[in-house]
Amino acid sequence: MIRAASADVIGELASGQRRPLARLLTRIENGDPSVRPMLPQLFATGHGAHVVGITGPPGSGKSTLVNALITEWRRRGRRVGILAVDPSSPYTRGAILGDRIRMMEHAADRDVFMRSMASRGELGGVAATTWIAAAAFDAAGYDPVLIETVGAGQSEVEVARLAETTVVVEVPEMGDEVQAIKAGLLEVADIIVVNKGDLPGADRAARQLRAMLSSAGGRVERKPPPVMLTTAISAGGVVALADAIEAHRAQSRTPIEARERAVSQIRRALADLAARRAAESSAWQTTVEAVAERALDPLTAAERLLDR
What we know:
Blueprint: H1 2-14, H2 18-29, H3 39-45, E1 51-55, H4 62-75, E2 80-86, E3 112-118, H5 130-139, E4 145-148, H6 159-162, E5 165-170, H7 177-182, H8 184-187, E6 191-194, H9 202-215, E7 227-229, H10 238-251, H11 255-280, H12 284-292, H13 298-307
Parallel strand pairs: 1-4, 1-5, 2-3, 2-4, 5-6, 6-7
């Protein structure tokens, strides 16, 4: 019965219907247990969509840049899916979901599907269920699938576990160059974009980033990512950026890259599963009390819960 219901949902997605996708995304975001049995078929049905992560600090113009990329990909005849992750309240777990406002010009386009998701306290710029939502977009025939992160700063490296191509958006006069180059955010970048290229200092910022990335090449195994200039509000440089993202698609699909992403994704799934099962165990409450009273250290507590 469950398998038949799952097949019905997958069939509706494959037919290109928008309403079943919207309903499924709601179930995914809410952690509905009925989603779990359909995951194997959901992944098997995927068409191999190019998952692109767009991340960077607040105010860098990520949403405006995503909007310009949507316009360019639609010009090329592509169906585009967007997952925009917004920060959520630590108390209610609700979110404003304001990124949608910047992309309203595509609201009537049946080949563009945008979904806002609340981060719900997750660190790293994405929500815990973002990877499942991306798989749903893939099964529904959207390609590329863009994931726009919260925009909370340098810690947003989690998107690199999900995306085949990670685009880090910076702005002119970003501040301390040493702080910029040591940020993990730049280390996971496949493409770096200096947005708001019409502002003073944009060319200089791009040159500084290229120089710093080049000098860091001896400490990093892979080739330094390209640094590009865009002015998203006028679509300046967006065609070249879309071309660069498309070119990176082939590079990201080597067996080595695919295995590295698989390892990262399995580790994240293991951590989530272990945490959930530990919290559901009969020993959870007594273990929490023992750590709170300093009768047990957190690492030993975690080991005991995992050994049960």
